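Record filed here:
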Amino acid sequence: MSNIHALSDVQSANIGASTRVWQFTVILQGAQIGEGCNINAHCFIENDVVVGDNVTVKCGNYLWDGLRVGAGVFIGPNVTFTNDKFPRSKQYPDGFPQTVLEPGASIGGGATILPGLTIGAGAMVGAGAVVTRSVPPRAVVAGNPARILRYLDAGAAS
């Protein structure tokens, strides 16, 4: 059974078992949230968003249409996701590019992720990074624009 705070606005019926949704969070009707997730306070999740199992979404995140979040992903506080490469007021694209966070990726607080990118499995994005290109699996990136600093050893604990 999910634990949905009374001060949240959850319109989706697709919330997995043991997922916690904290106060002042809005989840629109079409969103899909997996099992065992922790969606912290002050978040917004649009219709065309899929979140896998055991994902942590810290406070202050807006997950826009087109975002796909794999199992075990960590999204730190106040990460900025974008879904329109050429935004204009009152001019909407026919569809939004998919941004994919592969399983086990971690996004540090305050990072910015441009639309249509893939953050590889087990990759780590440093706090405040501006990610302008896809990130390979197990890469550690930081900076503006984000650059690969190193790769995590596949056998080591991340």
Notes: The mean pLDDT is 96. Residues 141 and 148 are 4 Å apart (CA to CA). The longest strand covers residues 147-151. The domain at 1-85+93-158 is CATH 2.160.10.10 (UDP N-Acetylglucosamine Acyltransferase; domain 1).
